Amino acid sequence: MHEYGSNKIYRALLNANVLNGIGDSLFNIVFIIYAATLPYKTLAVSLASFATVFPILLQLLTGYWADQTRKKVNKLIATRAIQCGLFLILAVTFTLNHQSIPLLLFILLLLIIVSSDVLGEYNSGIGITVIKHSVTPSNIDDAVSLSSAMTQIVSIVFQGLGAGLIVLLNHNYGLFALINACTFLGAGLIILKNRKEIASKTDIDPKKTESPSVQTEKSTHHFFASSWETLKDLRHQSTIFPILILFFLVNSIGGSCEGLISVTLANQSFLWLGNFGNTLAITLIIFSVGMILGALLSNDFLKNWQITSILNVTLFSLVLMALDFTILGSVWVLFIAAFMAAYTLSKINVRFSSLMIQKIDEKHLASTAGVINTLMMVGAPLGQFVFLGIANIINIHVSWFSYGVISLVLIAFSISVTNKSNQSVSDEKTI
């Protein structure tokens, strides 16, 4: 919070990102609601749901674009203006089409929304560079913590508000799109108001920092070659790479947690508090609260812990969850384990982001973030495929037993990584 109050550039960036997040969160859920009203609703809802994930899968590309961008502050303003314009088109289209729209027009509207979300990911890539230049290394943890917490709060709160607001507006989707356009306009105006300060930190003339040969190489550098180079750079980051492997593996099993809990609760009524729906909802709320508090409370007792130690706490909570579903059978243990897992996982996200911002060269910072986020996106469905597959092919207890054993193996792996990388860990503790 101190960084938000004292750092004008960071405050402007965070305020703009919050408005952007409100726009994205509000309309993504509302568009799915709209899709459910169409005659071809099964296809429409499926396409709308996938559209919310697709831009995240493109972070490798948008990160590369962000790294190659010059005059970054101009792009931050221009992209918000384009997003505003796209939603104005949506507003007009919905207003002119009161009845059900044909599939082709629906797909065109979906492409507009996806384009806006892709621009949002591009903005996020540029924002990482802004944070690196405008926040001192000692305060990056706090800055990333607050940004992460606000992103999660906006996503949770405004998705719920969107579903309620569209009802209050009598399902006037045109007016709703207009409201969204205003959020993007507001975000752009915030950046415009602070453009000189942001430009002074980010829009550095490359001629002053790069030799002519480097400039020529960059101008002919292709996306795939750059991505491969980013992966190689990550491989040689002695501080980051072992933790990245651990993080990927933990994310793979942690990402399957929600689906496995849902399947288990559906089949074990003795764990219910009233009914299945209530129990699942409470579990997910506890998980969300844990994620938010983990990001907000940056100065808690875990502040000076090594990132591998926090990873072990996350893994221990997953072991506890597996033990609960196979032996203990207590919904209260489930709630405790879910909160522990979410709280510490949020800490890891923040700590790893801070580590990356400080250790990765700014020329590849957004690209590296894109590579890492893409790897994390792949990990979650991979874990779901494995553990939900075991639950369906064999049974739920075998799935949870495997889940717990793998978590224990990862704890041993984490300890091994720590012992072999004492110097790297001591560097990471200074963050």
From TrEMBL:
<feature type="transmembrane region" description="Helical">
    <location>
        <begin position="77"/>
        <end position="97"/>
    </location>
</feature>
<dbReference type="InterPro" id="IPR036259">
    <property type="entry name" value="MFS_trans_sf"/>
</dbReference>
<keyword id="KW-0472">Membrane</keyword>
<dbReference type="Pfam" id="PF07690">
    <property type="entry name" value="MFS_1"/>
</dbReference>
<protein>
    <submittedName>
        <fullName>MFS transporter</fullName>
    </submittedName>
</protein>
<feature type="transmembrane region" description="Helical">
    <location>
        <begin position="400"/>
        <end position="419"/>
    </location>
</feature>
<feature type="transmembrane region" description="Helical">
    <location>
        <begin position="12"/>
        <end position="37"/>
    </location>
</feature>
<keyword id="KW-1003">Cell membrane</keyword>
<keyword id="KW-1133">Transmembrane helix</keyword>
<keyword id="KW-0812">Transmembrane</keyword>
<feature type="transmembrane region" description="Helical">
    <location>
        <begin position="143"/>
        <end position="167"/>
    </location>
</feature>
<feature type="transmembrane region" description="Helical">
    <location>
        <begin position="43"/>
        <end position="65"/>
    </location>
</feature>
<dbReference type="InterPro" id="IPR011701">
    <property type="entry name" value="MFS"/>
</dbReference>
<feature type="transmembrane region" description="Helical">
    <location>
        <begin position="103"/>
        <end position="122"/>
    </location>
</feature>
<feature type="transmembrane region" description="Helical">
    <location>
        <begin position="371"/>
        <end position="394"/>
    </location>
</feature>
<feature type="transmembrane region" description="Helical">
    <location>
        <begin position="173"/>
        <end position="192"/>
    </location>
</feature>
<feature type="transmembrane region" description="Helical">
    <location>
        <begin position="276"/>
        <end position="297"/>
    </location>
</feature>
<feature type="transmembrane region" description="Helical">
    <location>
        <begin position="240"/>
        <end position="264"/>
    </location>
</feature>
